[in-house]
Amino acid sequence: MRVLLRLAPVIACCTALAVPAAAQISLTPPSLQKQTPPPAPKKQPAKKSTSKAAPKAPAKSAPPATAVPAAPVAPAPNPTDENAAYAAYQRGQYKTALDLATVRAEQFGDAKAMTLLGELYANGIGIKRDDEKAANWYRQAADRGDREAMFALAMFRIGGRAGPASREEGTKLLASSAKLGNPKAAYNLALFYIEGNTFPQDLKRAAELLKIGADAGNPESQYALATFYKEGTGVPKDVAKSVQLLKAAALAENVDAEVEYAIALFNGTGTLKDEIAAVELLKKASRQGSPIAQNRLARVLVTGIGAPLDKIEGLKWHLVAKAKGNSDPLLDDALAKITPDERREVEDRARKWISGSR
Q1: Vertex 190: Cα angle to 241 and 131 (nearest 5)
Q2: What is 1-36 written as a DSSP string?
Q3: What confidence score (pLDDT) does residue 82 get?
Q4: Burial class of residue 302, CB neighbours in 10 A (0-12, 13-18, 19+)
Q5: Of 125, 126, 131, 102, the residue nearest 114 (C-alpha)
Q6: CA gap 328, 114 in Å, rounded
Q7: According to the model, what pLDDT value does residue 67 have?
């Protein structure tokens, strides 16, 4: 079973909010701009005429000046608005977010504002980083039932930030957050049940927790649960369900899932065979740095099975994967059989890719 025991990082706690559009500058149209009248023409001497002078037309009065409307002024953020701090955060106005969240937390006891303050202090956003203050705000929000604060504080306790590391306290907080439906907390707690060090290994319980995360769209949970269904670990074996989960996680850019789903597509395991789609996924995962994908792509290109034959490009990926410790005797043999000029081309391409000058 290849499940990556990797704790998810603390992420921004902000709930997605609709941010109002910024006020636009009000431009005065030319028709409303004040005009300077042209200079009056010089009087010409009147000419004598024998004809009867025509009656003078009455002078036209100038139209009244039109007032120019003032530009609208954006309203100041209202601290009584529970969404104002988050909206400021999303706009990148971190000092404003800090001030508004502080008012919301201190005057209204707003748990979400407390969690936001914890996030700002924990990451040094708009304020100097202060783990003690971050932990304090997370604790107050967690005591008020905020699941994001529980998760963030759990990561603090497990990682030893703002105090000694405590897996026991951290896992209790994860359990509380997971019980409230937090997919990140459920995934991380599942890893502890898989690991079996903090408390006895329980793969069935791990599968239950991974399902919470998978149903909520967490790609790490989807990938891990896919391996469970593939091998019948903690759940009945179900290859088709495994592939469905791999597909969902791959669409969410989980690199490990991209590789496994590509292999399933290439072989037609639990899904319809689609070599073209499989190779495209392998290329994507290879560019994202997966040595397994790079090795599989190298085999495809060197053998010409599933894609047009391209030994130079295939062996380039072989050397890139090998540099990360993923060796392959079949590809080593293919590399030994190419001409010196071809080998130089392969090595040059691999060098450029590894150095980042590609």
Answers
A1: 135
A2: ------PPPP---PPP-PPPPPPPP-PPPGGGSPPP
A3: 81
A4: buried
A5: 102
A6: 53
A7: 52
Contacts of 211 (CB under 8 A, 6+ apart): 221, 225
For residue 2, pLDDT over 70 is answered with no
In the block, residue with structure tokens 């008012």: 103
Nearest to 270 by CA among 245, 297, 305: 245
Neighbouring C-beta atoms of residue 115, cutoff 10 Å: 29
Amino acid at 154: A
Interatomic CA distance for residues 117 and 100, integer angstroms: 10
Give the burial class of 239: count Cβ atoms within 10 A of its Cβ; 0-12 exposed, 13-18 middle, 19 or more buried: middle
Length of the chain: 358
Answer whether 209's CB lies under 8 Å from 187's CB.
Answer: yes
**Are the C-beta atoms of residues 261 and 250 closer than 8 Å to each other?**
yes
- Rounded to whole angstroms, how far apart are CA atoms 254 and 290? 11
Other beta carbons less than 10 A from residue 227's beta carbon:
20
Classify the phi-psi angles of 303: left when phi > 0, otherwise alpha if psi is within -120 to 50, otherwise beta: alpha
Per residue in 45-69, pLDDT (tens digit) is 444 444 444 445 445 555 555 555 5
The string of DSSP codes covering 106-140 is: HHH--HHHHHHHHHHHHHTSSS---HHHHHHHHHH
7: its two tokens: 């704790």
